[in-house]
Amino acid sequence: MPFFFNSCILCAFTTNYAGGSYNLPIIREMMNATTGINIGPGQMLDIGERNFNLLRIHSAEEGYTRSKDKLPKRFNEVLPRGASTGSPISEDKIEEAIDEYYELRGWEEEGPSAEKLRSLGMGEVVKYIE
Fold first, then answer.
1. What does the alpha-carbon distance between residue 25 and residue 37 come to, in Å, rounded to a whole number?
2. Is residue 54 within a helix (H) or strand (E), and if so which, with residue range?
3. Partner residues linked to 111 by β-bridges
4. Domain residue ranges of the chain, discontinuous segments joined by +
5. Which has the closest alpha carbon to 89: 73, 100, 70?
6. pTM higher than the cut 0.85
7. What is the block-wise mean pLDDT of the chain (130 residues), using blocks of 10 residues?
8. Mind telling me which SUPFAM superfamilies this protein's record contains (predicted)?
9. Can you tell me the distance from the alpha carbon of 83 to that of 92, in angstroms, rounded to the nearest whole number?
10. In 3-state terms, what secondary structure has residue 10?
């Protein structure tokens, strides 16, 4: 939902502070009154996802692609105490998780796939990624 809030120019921190069950219906009502369109919860998620994919396209244009999606080396270090003591996360596992994330998002190395953009009703944007 944060990307929906961002597209409304609302602070995700303050809108989440009171909890979604309180804020989301109010924000939805506000959007419906402002636009005259009856936006449902699913559409709010779709708007946020389109926003997030546009952000990712822009990031790719600036050189931020899959090859730069890395976690700090600190994540590979052995933890001195706690539930995961002595069990660092291997770089391979991190890369595997990031690859899975990309797959779930419908992204390729350079960002959102043409298929993903079309599924979001963003076919007109495809020409900018090809």
1. 15
2. helix 41-61
3. 108
4. 1-63
5. 73
6. no
7. 69 68 81 89 88 94 93 85 83 93 95 96 92
8. Aldehyde ferredoxin oxidoreductase, C-terminal domains
9. 21
10. coil
